[in-house]
Design brief:
Structural class of chain B: alpha+beta
Number of domains of chain A: 1
Largest interface: A-B, 45 and 28 residues
Radius of gyration of chain B: 31 Å
Largest sheet of chain A: 11 strands, mixed
Number of strands of chain A: 11
CATH superfamily of chain A: Amidase signature (AS) domain
Distance between the termini of chain A: 14 Å
Radius of gyration of chain A: 21 Å
CATH architecture of chain A: Alpha-Beta Complex
Strand content of chain A: 5-15%
Strand content of chain B: 15-25%
Oligomer: heterodimer
Chain lengths: 479, 486
């Protein structure tokens, strides 16, 4: 079997036993890439030579020694392109390593290539990429989800073992659900954002996309911990996650938020998620119904706050210092206008304009400041819910992967794809998506487990127990 | 509006002060000027994609210290906000500043009468000793420096992201002289706390002025004009003098004052329209999500308090009381802590402290402008003062020793010997001189004895000449009188 099909944990074991060499992994991955990438288009750039070179000198004594990882195109890896799948960063090469990247390097990992994404992480289908669409490995006529669609498709499509993504409103979990892999959005502050090109700074969080929960824990252990370069990272010491998974969920209190099971939602999704809840109950967990009453406001709050922050975060792309510069500009203002008009795609422009509007004098109170207040209420919802339970169990996405081109003309419909994931970003909690079933047409369905803030260990233990009791994770997309 | 009668100006200042810190406001780059362009830079101060700011505690502490020195209230929790506007010298196209929750609020600047322009220091305006209220002090990052060449512009990013403190006054100032004294007095405080070098000519302190005029007695403010490009404290005064006259003349003619920003042209001695403010810029401030609120907890407050200097007013009072210097001298010394420290050392060894102050503030500074590096040891002044007071040399001789001291900084005692200036106080030697004088000037002796007491001066002159100026004049006087009345 190709090494491209294996998990990090198993490859690490085999590397340590000297059964295989890191170069074998890289070679198998590139064989797989050559076979599949034409269909998938998960990558926007591949490090063929440098990955092989890194494999040759890998230090196998390190926890991730010899492991190649795919990186979403919005994370700075020194010397690699970092375009955020945008024309405005065409040709831009990262001049430094993100902290997450530096930590993976320290742990012995190296980098396979850049994965496709919705431009500046704005989207839920990866169709907003200026570098072409990515296709779902389970059905190439369908989207992989987004914005970390390239990372999810790469991991599910066996062209990467694991990938990093970023999650601002569901951008790791939703594509993980739609592609049938494991996507973890850690608690805000758990992983340093230094070097992640910001979309919405108060919501963005880096996280791993993997085949298994154990692989997710392995990467989180390398990534987590305070960073003096990120003022918003938590001060707690680094820890190792899921070191003694026992597969038990006995005594766990699992909350089902009633606002996450809506009339009219996809029946197959609902059935699979309710079946997952039933599995937890049968295995000794208690199921409690809880309420997160401000959930209906979450999408509105998110699209006000995320766009407000984005409008400032993306102001730096102006053609003056780096990235795409419009030619023949008459003056500085003209240079700004032309560089930005030519460089940004439609969705990015829409969000910059929306964000600029909600912060404008005369409107900021009604939109930006009111949204901040409601964000506080959403956070309280979660705190109250976690007084009654240890984890929340919900669908990750209201439906499985939709078809390419089906939603991208209707932004509001597209925004609903993140209805179950957005609240956790607003509240700052950690959450995981893992496969919990397949539709009749063989599309993966994702289960979301949300933890209290910094409750990753609880999330990972429960997710691991569910995963190992089922074989959804072993299922392979058609080749 | 009244076309006759008296008018007054209403002036408010916004003063930007570059903080003297080791590193920049939000990154570890060196905060230093004058090096090759764009050499102190990193992803953070260049605003590269993915970089994040981390606040500089030293800058926060120095801002709190400034607030404490100026009697401000220090916010228990302060926040950083993003101020959004596009400009090539600002790499993120937003500036991290403070809007709703600045570090310091309230407080005031006491106007030092001796920091008014020299020619009006005797007026009531200067002597009033008013305190100008402050609205707030906040902390922000400075922008880069643009250079404009013939066909292109360049940007030096060394200044980008360096800490900048903005001090905003209430509209309490009424005259150009007060604005001048405000800036001088503020500078005196900033220097005392070692917060900034605060030199306007070097751009370390920058000042925007808001000014309007109104008939005396009217409560409402007139239309405010903002003045920019003010590069010295005296420039602020000149610009205000011009602008106030311009506005009053316009009002007298019944013309409306435009709400605008005007640029001061120091060479032309006039202000010119830069841009009108009909459309106020919307900076769309919002809290910077990359930065946690700053809690000015006990530890931070204590470390700021530990740096509190003796404030200019207290220092001036102490110098006047303990050293006997004049109010003017106290003000000069309070404006220059290095000089003041030098003076205090010099005066420490003698009871004749006021004499030392005169020497240092007049003759000394003329040849030794930098007391920090002068080879003249402060202790020499005490020695010199005591030589005079003890009668070893007279004041004329002291001048010679002083001049020698400036070029040949060695102990004044040694200089007196070297120059052969030691005063003759030996009464037998002086008696011999006096006898010679009496013998050689019979007419003066006669005149003196006849009641013309002034005649003794001729005899004294004789003695001084004979002794080459070394005779102790007081003793000579006594001896002559005794001999003549014998």
């Amino acid at each position: 079997m190709s090494l491209a099909h294996e998990t990090l944990v198993s490859l690490r074991r085999r590397l340590a036993a000297k059964e295989i060499h890191p170069r074998d992994i890289v070679k198998d991955l590139f064989t797989q890439i050559d076979a599949r990438e034409k269909t998938l288009h998960a990558y926007t750039h591949l490090n063929r030579e440098s990955a092989l070179a890194a494999a040759e000198k890998a230090d196998l004594s390190l926890p991730l020694g010899g492991i190649p990882i795919a990186i979403k195109d919005n994370l700075n890896v020194l010397g690699d392109p970092c375009t955020c799948s945008s024309k405005i960063l065409e040709g831009y090469k990262a001049p430094y390593d993100a902290t997450a990247i530096a930590r993976l390097r320290q742990a012995g990992a190296f980098f396979l290539g850049r994965t496709n994404m919705d431009e500046f992480a704005m989207g839920s289908s990866t169709e907003n990429s200026a570098l072409g669409v990515t296709r779902n490995p389970w059905d190439p006529t369908r989207i992989p989800g987004g914005s970390s669609g390239g990372s999810a498709a790469a991991v599910a499509g066996r062209v990467a073992l694991a990938a990093l993504g970023s999650d601002t409103g569901g951008s790791i979990r939703q594509p993980a659900a739609l592609c049938g892999c494991v996507g973890l959005k850690p608690t805000y502050g758990r992983i340093s954002r230094y070097g992640l090109v910001a979309f919405a700074s108060s919501l963005d969080q880096i996280g791993p996309l993997t085949r298994t929960v154990e692989d997710s824990a392995l990467l989180l252990s390398a990534l987590a911990g305070h960073d003096p370069r990120d003022n918003t990272t938590d001060l707690r010491k680094p820890e190792n996650f899921l070191t003694k998974p026992d597969g038990s969920v006995k005594g766990l209190r699992i909350g089902l938020p009633k606002e996450y099971f809506l009339p009219g939602m996809d029946t197959e999704t609902e059935a699979a998620v309710r079946a997952a809840a039933e599995w937890f109950r049968k295995n000794g967990a208690t199921i409690v119904e809880v309420s997160l009453p401000h959930t209906p406001a979450a999408i509105a709050v998110y699209y006000i706050l995320a766009t407000a922050e984005a409008s400032a975060n993306l102001a730096r792309f102006d053609g003056v210092r780096y990235g795409r510069r419009a030619t023949d500009a008459r003056d500085v203002l003209d240079l700004y206008q032309r560089s930005r008009s030519e460089g940004f795609g439609a969705e990015v422009k829409r969000r910059i304009i929306l964000g600029t509007f909600v912060l404008s004098q005369g409107y900021a109170d009604a939109y930006y400041r009111r949204a901040q207040k409601v964000r506080g209420l959403l956070r309280e919802d979660f705190e109250k819910a976690f007084a009654q339970c240890d984890l929340l169990l919900t669908p990750t996405s209201p439906e499985p992967a939709f078809r390419l081109g089906e939603r991208n003309q209707d932004p509001l419909k597209m925004y609903l794809a993140d209805v179950f994931t957005i609240s956790t970003n607003l509240a700052g909690n950690g959450a995981i998506s893992l496969p919990c079933g397949f539709t009749q047409s063989n599309l993966p369905i994702g289960l979301q487990l949300i933890g209290p803030r910094f409750g990753e260990e609880t999330i990972l233990r429960a997710a691991h127990a569910f995963e190992q009791a089922h074989d959804f994770w072993k299922r392979m997309p058609p080749s | 509006m009244s076309s006759t009668g008296t008018w007054e100006a209403v002036i408010g200042l916004e003063v930007h002060v570059q903080l003297r810190t080791q590193t920049k406001m939000f990154c570890g780059c060196v905060n230093h000027y004058g090096d090759a362009p764009t050499t102190h830079v990193c992803p953070v101060c260049l605003g590269l994609p993915g970089s994040l700011p981390v606040p500089n505690e030293e800058a926060i502490r120095k801002t709190i210290l400034t607030g404490l020195m100026l009697g401000c209230k220090i916010a228990p929790v302060a926040r950083f906000d993003r101020k959004n506007y596009f400009y090539p010298d600002m790499p993120k196209n937003y500036q991290i500043s403070q809007f709703d929750d600045p570090l310091c609020a309230g407080g005031g600047v006491g106007l030092d009468p001796f920091l008014f322009p020299k020619e009006i220091q005797d007026t009531e305006e200067a002597k009033a000793g008013r305190t100008i209220r402050l609205t707030r002090i906040h902390l922000e990052e400075d922008v880069a420096k643009s250079f404009h060449f013939e066909d292109r512009s360049g940007i030096d990013f060394n200044r980008a992201g360096t800490p900048l403190m903005e001090i905003v006054s209430e509209a309490d100032l009424r005259t150009p002289g007060e604005a001048f004294a405000f800036l001088g007095s503020l500078r005196q405080v900033l220097l005392s706390g070692n917060v900034s070098d605060a030199d306007m000519e070097k751009g370390q302190m920058r000042c925007d002025v808001n000014v309007s005029v109104r008939p005396v007695g009217q409560k409402e403010f007139g239309t405010k004009v903002e003045l920019k490009n003010l590069n010295s404290i005296s420039g602020v005064r000149r610009a205000l003098t011009y602008e106030i006259a311009r506005q009053i003349a316009a009002c007298r003619k019944g013309e409306a004052i435009a709400h605008e920003t005007r640029r001061w042209d120091d060479e032309a001695g006039a202000t010119f329209t830069m841009r009108t403010k009909e459309k106020a810029h919307d900076y769309r401030y919002f809290p910077d999500p990359d930065l946690l609120p700053v809690r000015t907890d006990q530890g931070l407050m204590e470390s700021a308090r530990a740096e509190l200097p003796e404030l200019p007013a207290a220092l001036q009072a102490r110098l006047a009381k303990d050293f006997g210097v004049t109010a003017y001298q106290a003000s000069v010394l309070a404006s220059d802590r290095v000089l003041c420290g030098y003076y205090e050392k010099a005066a420490a060894g003698t009871t004749h402290k006021a004499v030392v102050a005169n020497w240092i503030l007049n003759d000394f500074l003329a040849t030794q402008p930098d007391p920090a590096t002068t080879p003249v040891e402060p202790a020499f002044f005490a020695e010199l003062a005591d030589l005079v007071a003890g009668g070893t040399i007279n004041s004329a001789q002291a001048k010679k020793v002083f001049a020698e001291l400036m070029t040949n900084p060695t102990s004044p005692k040694a200089l007196v010997k070297k120059l052969g200036l030691e005063q003759i106080s030996d009464s037998s030697a002086l008696g011999t001189y006096c006898d010679e004088a009496i013998a050689a000037n019979p007419r003066s002796v006669e005149d003196y004895r006849a009641g013309k007491t002034n005649a003794i001066n001729a005899l004294k002159g004789f003695v001084m000449k004979k002794s080459q100026g070394k005779a102790n004049p007081v003793q000579v006087d006594e001896i002559l009188k005794a001999k003549l009345s014998a």
